[in-house]
Structure formats: C-alpha cells, structure tokens
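stage 2 :: seqdesign
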C-alpha cells in the first residue's frame, strides 16, 4: 500500500461529533498537524468523511 501524508487545514469547531471522532482516530486534532498513514480502505473512508478539513498528499 502507498503511504499518504494527511494534514489538518480546518478546525473541527461546529462540526458533527462523528467528524471530530474521525479526526481523533486519524491522529489529528490541531491545525497544521500532519500524520503519515498507509492508504488502506479504512483510512480512505475516514479521509472521505473529513475531506473538507484535511489535505492528503501522496508520499
């Protein structure tokens, strides 16, 4: 699987609790924080839920 870098670019204030939980599961929580993850189907699904809050870059 390919690795991706996921960076939070928008705040989770006034977002539904499901999206806040998804961000926490990805390892994000503060602006401009980045994590590297294997791009598995489960990660792809989580990114799809919060796509308006993050930027995904392929490594």
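stage 2 :: out
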């Amino acid at each position: 699987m390919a690795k991706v870098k996921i960076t939070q670019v928008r705040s989770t204030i006034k977002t539904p609790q499901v999206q806040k939980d998804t961000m926490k599961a990805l390892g994000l929580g503060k602006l401009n924080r980045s994590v590297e993850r294997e791009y598995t189907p489960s990660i792809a699904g989580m990114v799809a839920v919060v796509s308006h809050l993050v930027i995904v870059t392929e490594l």
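stage 3 :: structure notes
- The longest strand covers residues 3-8.
- Residues 17-26 form the longest helix (10 residues).
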